[in-house]
Amino acid sequence: MRAGPARRMLAAGLVTLAAVAGCGVRPSDVISAGEPPKGTVAPTTTIVLYLVKDGRLSAVTRPSARPVFRTERLALLAAGPTPEERTLGLTTEVPPEAGPFSVTVRAGGRMVLTASVPGGALSTLAVRQVVCTAAALPESPARIALAGARASADPRDCPR
User: Fold this and answer.
1) Which residues have C-beta within 8 Å of that of residue 136, sequence separation ≥ 6?
2) Beta carbons within 8 Å of 1's beta carbon, 6+ residues apart
């Protein structure tokens, strides 16, 4: 008498298998979809620079089609705001001759930035711009210093 439930389960399994097997994709010829897309690739990432507006730091994002290294970000900072950013009242305290910058990571993960001008020649606000821009990457260390600067800046004090 135990054969009855087992047969019913086997029959139900076979019916289910037949139903699933009948739902396959049927073969077809190649289907033409037209021309491939054309044009430029949209930016895939953004870079953050710290510019100045009304005497205070302001985080500004710019689109980029590729990742931008820390030294390149600092070079963009020294180049100053774009025309569009200028119309928004953004400026920079970092002079163009401050670039290029070099970046050195020391023991304990401390990062030291070196400008092409003596660090003491930069204003306190310029030092904050440089440190905050350098710290605007996810892998930034907790401590960043600008070599030779009279003023110091703590990345934890950077506006987000």
Assistant:
1) 47, 48, 49, 50, 59, 73, 158
2) none
Q: List CB contacts of 15: < 8 A, sequence separation 6 or more.
A: none
How many residues does the structure list for the chain?
Answer: 160
Q: What's the helix, strand, coil split of the chain in %, to 5?
A: 35, 20, 45
Say how far apart CA 55 and CA 91 lie, in whole Å.
9
* 3-state secondary structure (DSSP) of residue 34: coil
Quote the pTM value.
Answer: 0.69
Tokens representing 46? 């953004």
> Is residue 92 classed exposed, middle or buried when 0-12, 13-18 and 19+ CB atoms within 10 A define those classes?
buried
Q: Helix axis angle, 70-79 relative to 124-134, nearest 10°? A: 140
Unique residue bearing structure tokens 């200028």? 86
Tens digit of pLDDT for each residue in 47-92? 999 999 999 999 999 998 888 888 999 999 999 999 999 999 999 9
Find residue 61's DSSP bridge partners. Answer: 48
